[in-house]
Amino acid sequence: GGDHTITYPILQAVAEKHGPVGLVHVDAHTDTGDRALGEKIYHGTPFRRCVEEGLLDCSRVVQIGIRGSSYDPDPYKYCRDQGFRVVPAEECWRNSLVPLMGEVRTQMGGKPVYISFDIDGLDPAYAPGTGTPEIAGLTPVQALEIIRGCKGLNIVGCDLVEVAPMYDVSGNTALLGANLLFEMLCVLPGVKTR
């Protein structure tokens, strides 16, 4: 629940215990802005704050499904300059993400990893109940491939944010969000699913 500002204090606590962590971040937006509406803490800025505080192992950050309009001609420059791997949505179109997740598992290694999933990473055809929908997003099948592809990683926490049920009279966004959270619980270390 909530927006991506909740991830910032969670990662502060996680890093206090584990040190800088890897991040599997699914979203339409990088959430690495410096300021929004004059504020440094806003749902579009948390991962920049995390970088500034040394909460992330930047060589082990992957952002998947990124897309949408921007005021900047190179909107992913900050992320790439930090060492993040940015996987724009168009690289995911018409593809299984199983091979990508094999690469991500190699990149993450055995060190601690946090999963942060913004529901707007999915196309609004599947998840319209969010505050900042962007067309041409991921499918629910690809979301499952990402989450299930994290099985075996040293996951130390996860979240799913930006579900706004009042924007979806069908209830599908909330249903999808609940199922994705269930899937995240199933890939936590030590959870037996068979």
UniProtKB/TrEMBL annotation:
Which is a Pfam family this sequence falls into? Arginase
Q: Which GO terms describe its molecular function?
A: agmatinase activity; metal ion binding
Q: Which PANTHER family match?
A: ARGINASE/AGMATINASE, GUANIDINO ACID HYDROLASE, MITOCHONDRIAL
Question: What keywords were assigned to this record?
Answer: Hydrolase, Metal-binding
Similarity comment: family membership:
Belongs to the arginase family. Agmatinase subfamily.
Q: What is the lineage of its organism?
A: Eukaryota, Metazoa, Chordata, Craniata, Vertebrata
UniProt xrefs under InterPro entries: Ureohydrolase, Ureohydrolase_dom_sf, Ureohydrolase_Mn_BS
* One GO process term, biological-process aspect: putrescine biosynthetic process from arginine, via agmatine
What organism does the UniProt record list as the source?
A: Spizaetus tyrannus
Q: What is this protein called?
A: SPEB protein
